[in-house]
Each structure stands twice: as C-alpha cells, then as structure tokens.
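Lab notebook, bench 4. The sequencing result for the construct came back, and we need a structural model before the next group meeting so we can plan mutations. Quick request posted to the team channel:

Model the 3D structure of this chain.
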Amino acid sequence: MVGSTVQNTTASISVDCDKVLSLLTADSIKLTYLGATPAVTGARGLLRRTDDTSNPDNVPVVVCVQSGCAGSSEVQVGGSYTWSGSTLLSLLTSQRYTLPIYLRTVAGQNVSAGPYSVALNFRIDWNVCNLGVAVCLAYQTGSGSPGTTVSLTVSNDCSTITAPAVNFDSAPLVQNFKSVSQSIAVTCTKGSTYTVGVSNGANVSGNVRRMKSGNNYMSYEIYKSNGTDRWGSLGAERWASSVSSGLSSDGLLRNYNYVAKVLTTQTTPPAGSYTDTLVVDVAF
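Done. Here's the predicted structure in token form:
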C-alpha cells in the first residue's frame, strides 16, 4: 500500500553533444528543478488524482540523483545539482550523457484508490569540451527544458486484518456457556468498499459451525452485532463495509462487532478441549 510502502521508479535525461572529448576536464552539466504540475508542497511535486481533480488526496514525490536517494542527493523545487569530473564522465556513452533521475514516494499518505500523476519540470545547462588535447580549447554550452511525467495507480487493498481468538472458557453444560462479544478490525484503502466474510470452519455440518475434540463435536455460531444474523462467507451472510460497526477518523480502519455463541439446542458432548479454525476474508 502507498500509505505504508515507499514506491520507487527511475527516469533519465539525455544530453547529446556534437563532439565530446573523453577527458577529465572542467565539463559540467547542471540540473535545476523548476517545479511540478499540478501542485507542489514543501518543495516537492505532488501526485494528484487525474480522474477527479477536486479530490485533495496527494502523494509527494522525492527527486534524487543517486540510487536510493543516498546521502543528500535529493533535489527539491528551486534547487539544483551539478554533475562534473569523473562522475559526469561515467555517464558518457559516445556523444551522449545519460543523467539518472531516481524517484520515490513519501510513505504515510492516506489516499483513495485511483490514478495519480504529476509533471516534473527541469532545466539542464551544459558546459562540455569539444576541442583540445592536453587542455580544453573550446566548450559547447547550452540549455534545455526537459520534463518527465510520473504516474501511479492506487488500487484497493487491505493491509491488516486483526481477528482475536474466541474463548468460551469452560462450562458443564452447553446451556452454561456465555456468549462472547468482540470485534474484528480491518484496515483497507481509504474510501474503499468491500465485504468481509467468515468461513464455516474445518468441521461444518450443513451450515452449522462445529468445534471438535477427538471424535466429538460442539456446535456454535458467529453472529453479526445484532446477535441474530449469521456471519458467513457467501452472499447476504457477508458483511458490507458500508454498514460496519465503526470507522476510524482517517477512514482506513473499520471494526466489525460480533457475537459468538455455543448453540444450546444440542446435547452436551463429552468433556474435552474443543477447537475450530475460521478464515476471515475481504472481497472488493
């Protein structure tokens, strides 16, 4: 997810010269970060929704000139970086300099799913020797205004599902087991709509969940917050996010309060430790 994971990509700017001497001269190429469209904040360009320009969601983009944005290699809007000496020479192939640009997002952004884009605008100024033997006798100088468009598509996804174990404790008869009320928490993309399902477990009989101990079974059920609607994995038994029990202020985490009950209509099985395993799933 964009909110928790830095996304990386690369671009390059090419400078073609009429003639280049492969010498350690005073050659230099300067990159100046002019700005970004549609928006800039904190001297960084912002990825914004392209399908809904009124949506304020954004993802800042870091521009660097070294892989992994090592050291102080970030270039911010209004700033510049100059390649020279052996570093510049290492970027030369025939008569072309290929200048690497490393781009990465800033983690911690709470954004909705959709397409995002930003256009980054640069200026390149070059001063490259094209005549000389021991010393440079003539330089090629000039400038250009290259740009690059950065695009990102945020898809609906979930980062965490927190589902605590259900413990009915112990009782001598099925009628004496108390109901367990607790919650499953699901963290998904901001604004996403989905349904949450709970499987029938490993020992289901018909459409009734069962815990197992040896060759014996104890029937139980999981109900939505009202205590009467079964929470299952198919159709109407799934739980829509639009009617979750609660939503965090940032719009990411939803709670689903449920009630687990041992069915009292069954005959009390032999004493033992009864268990079952359920799977919680999310479907978009």
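The chain has a mean pLDDT of 94.
Will bring this to the meeting.
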